[in-house]
Design brief:
With about 525 residues, the chain is an alpha+beta fold. The protein contains 19 helices and 21 strands. Strand 19, helix 14 and strand 20 form a beta-alpha-beta unit. Helix 5 crosses helix 6.
């Protein structure tokens, strides 16, 4: 292998004096915080297939389709009839699972996979899912999308009773609960474990004989059932089924546990029925636009958000400009309803990603232009309205507004296709606490001034519900988990109410990954 220069030394790349390097370091660190902290963080994605001779390869393709749900790590566990095989790596799916030799190390007709963005537990290899454990009944692997709101409390209790935790993710709690259950059948152990946990979860798990899917009783996190060549598939989104040419069968119902084995499929519904509360952010941001979530086209819903935004807060402008990529469908809807032309006034560089900005703090990001550039021809001398999906800290929005003005925009109006985010999330979205949320600490006018726009408006909560086909939000029976806007959480927040302080993120061991 050829010797490589240390990439952390910017002088190897640019002819800069030390003062200039220090300034670039400071700018890079600031921009890194802006790019990584001023957005909704993806959750996780799960995938599983039963009975297919190319289970691992199909799982890898499914994870590619779910990559938007987590870009920090990916893993696959397979079973070949006698042994389990596991490959878990930091980085993107394509970094590992596009190689033939990796797939060949995952033989068998049963496989589960996971893409991760960490909301509980640091991004280290021992936290990469699917997690695997050898129980007295045999091997058990599990991948989890969501977050347990009593995970830390359960963890503390399990450790007091002698459990030895190997990871810092709340998902490991599920492994220990299954292991400690005294029930005879595995499915009864699994159900007993789920009765103990609170919060949001879609689980795809496997034993040496079964593929198991489970969804929390409120259906906060999505999970769908598909079929390929007669083999059942479980996935977080329908776009993963489309990627592999599988047929969509149905959504896994809230509170349902479905088991596939050689005898076929068995559905269990061990929880008392509750009105579903799916996460509204699946429609606002998380799901891919080409997915169908809860029977609704995500693309159509986002266009409806934009159209409703135009009804509520339109101003006279010359062009509608999306903040790519998440603001594009809403901007299309806004343009179609208002009659104002849609223009790509911002061009996104798709080749600036996590793998680029990880190696060094120096010269990572010289400005937001590294990720977004102004299309001067579309905006110079014009009054523009920028459409984005949401606003968290406001730092990136401020830079984009400034970029538009620098490119010659005469007026810059900003519209958000969701209500103001006022409260943190505890179900798998890595949002700041209230002090880090711009809308929670500033008035509308203060926010407008902070980002430098000529006007600023958000989609109303009732307007969001109307765009979803509802008459408005019914406070007595909300149809969605909308707690980030309303502060009304759909489950107990046990870990947040404990008198004994508990860290939001555990860190027990520093290790190379």
């Amino acid at each position: 292998m050829d010797e490589m220069k240390n990439p952390s030394d910017p002088a190897d790349h640019l002819d800069l004096n030390p003062t200039a390097i220090e300034k670039l370091d400071a700018a890079a660190i600031e921009m890194q915080d802006d790019l990584e902290g001023d957005t909704l963080r993806e959750e996780c994605g799960v995938f599983g297939i039963f009975g297919h001779p190319e289970a691992a390869a199909i799982t890898a393709l499914g994870l590619h389709a779910l990559q938007h749900r987590g870009q920090e790590a990916a893993g696959i566990v397979s079973f070949d009839g006698s042994r389990f095989h596991s490959e878990r790596r930091l980085g993107l799916v394509g970094d590992t699972f596009s190689r033939r030799e990796v797939i060949e190390r995952l033989p068998g007709s049963l496989a589960v996979g996971h893409v991760r963005y960490s909301t509980t537990g640091a991004t280290i290899l021992r936290n990469v899912q699917p997690l695997f454990a050898e129980l007295n009944a045999g091997g058990f692997a599990v991948g989890h999308n969501g977050n347990l709101t009593n995970g830390l409390s359960l963890r503390r209790e399990l450790v007091r009773n002698g459990a030895m935790m190997q990871s810092t993710t709340d998902t490991e709690v599920i492994l220990h609960l299954v292991a400690q259950s005294k029930r005879g059948r595995f499915i009864d152990r699994f159900i007993e474990s789920l009765r103990a946990i609170e919060g949001a979860y879609s689980l795809v798990s496997m034993t040496n004989k079964k593929l198991i899917g489970a969804r929390d009783p409120l259906g906060i996190r999505p999970l769908v059932l598909g079929e390929l060549d007669g083999c059942p598939i479980l996935a977080s989104e329908t776009c993963a089924l489309d990627m592999i040419g599988a047929k969509y069968v149905r959504d896994i119902e809230p509170g349902e546990i479905i088991v596939f084995d050689e005898q076929g499929a068995q559905s269990h519904k061990p929880f008392p029925p509750k009105p579903p509360r799916p996460c509204i952010f699946e429609y606002i941001y998380f799901s891919r636009p080409d997915s169908i979530v809860g029977g609704r086209s995500v693309y159509d819903v986002r266009k409806a958000f934009g159209a409703q935004l135009a009804r509520e807060s339109h101003v006279e402008v010359d062009v509608v400009v999306p903040v790519p990529d998440s603001g594009v469908p809403a901007a299309v809807g806004y343009s179609q309803h208002s009659g104002v032309p849609f223009e790509l006034g911002i061009i996104r560089n798709h080749y600036v990603g996590r793998t680029f900005i990880q190696p060094t703090q120096s010269v990572r990001e010289l400005g937001v232009r590294m990720k977004h550039s102004a299309n001067r021809a579309a905006i110079e001398g014009k009054r523009i309205i920028l459409i984005d999906d949401s606003l968290v800290r406001g730092t990136t929005s401020k830079k984009i507004v400034r970029m538009m003005r620098d490119a010659g925009a005469r007026e810059v109006h900003f519209r958000l296709a969701s209500p103001p985010i006022l409260y943190p999330d505890y179900y798998g979205i890595d949002l700041p606490d209230r002090g880090g949320l711009l809308a929670a600490t500033h008035s509308l006018e203060e926010m407008r001034e902070a980002i430098g726009a000529d006007s600023l408006a958000f989609l109303s909560i009732d307007g969001m519900y109307r765009a979803m086909g509802e008459p408005g939000r019914d406070p007595a029976n909300p149809k969605f988990a909308d707690h980030c806007f309303t502060g009304v959480y759909p489950t107990h927040l046990t870990d947040q109410t404990q008198v004994e302080p508990q860290p939001r993120q555990l860190s027990l061991l520093a290790e190379a990954s």
